[in-house]
Amino acid sequence: MTDAVPALKAENVRMTFGETRALDDVSLAVEPGEMVALIGPSGSGKSTLLRVAAALQPADNTSGPVAVLGHTMQSRGRIASRVRKNRARLGFIFQQFNLVGRLSLFGNVMLGALGRLPVWRGALGMFPNSVKQAAMDALERVGMEEFAARRASNLSGGQQQRGAIARALVQGAEVLFADEPIASLDPVSARKVMELLRELNQSDGLTVVVTLHQVDYAQRYCDRTVALNKGRIVYDGPSNGLDREKLIEIYGPEFETAFYGGEE
Ligand SMILES: Nc1ncnc2c1ncn2[C@@H]1O[C@H](COP(=O)(O)OP(=O)(O)OP(=O)(O)O)[C@@H](O)[C@H]1O
Questions:
Q1: Which fold has domain 91-173?
Q2: 122, 139, 174, 186: which one has the fewest Cβ atoms less than 10 Å from its Cβ?
Q3: What was the ipTM of the complex prediction?
Q4: For residue 149, how far is its CA from the centre of ligand 1 (angstroms)?
């Protein structure tokens, strides 16, 4: 723990959909520079937690506050009035559809700067040279410069994810929430995306919170793992502390057969 303002602080967050308690008193603090995996069975509340934390979705009116880099995003089910400003240093990567398909990759990456440009510039697509340079640098950083002119819809899933990360870099994101960024990728592309996130975390100090279905990716790339089950945190600790017993506790007995093939 440090004295720094947490990158993410969620206190007693509650989110209900009809009868379903998607988040049941979730409290979580992530320090700047951490790379944290969010795991848990399907429907355990991983995506909801990220969406609530980014204030893409209002939580229950009985819910405690969520802050990103010390700025309140929402509290008691009310999105903060300055949320747009507070989101400036937060990047969000979804499983799919991160890029505008009809635009070039370069055009997409430049969109990361929209928040700090006058509206007319964005509307006319007139980006200053500084933004063009930043977009090119970001594409180089994610190893995608040779695809700059390619229409986004003609890129592979993994290339699109790397493009989305480049856009977050142009945005100047210091915290990145990635919601199942590798769920629809083949293993090689998935590895490249995770390696890139890890590299940005280690070299640039980018704070990363990433939801994952694959426990082995969490263990390989993230020092810390938070596991949810039925909207509650059931594990929060070092990823290498997730042993067979703990994983069966998190995912249920089916995990044994799925992950270990049922062997002794
Ligand atoms: N918009 C919604 N309307 C109704 N129920 C929802 C909505 N979004 C999520 N839920 C429910 O809330 C619970 C948590 O969903 P969430 O998508 O956060 O889980 P998850 O852990 O991300 O699952 P997965 O790994 O399958 O993506 C689930 O029971 C889900 O059905």
A1: Rossmann fold (3.40.50)
A2: 186
A3: 0.96
A4: 36
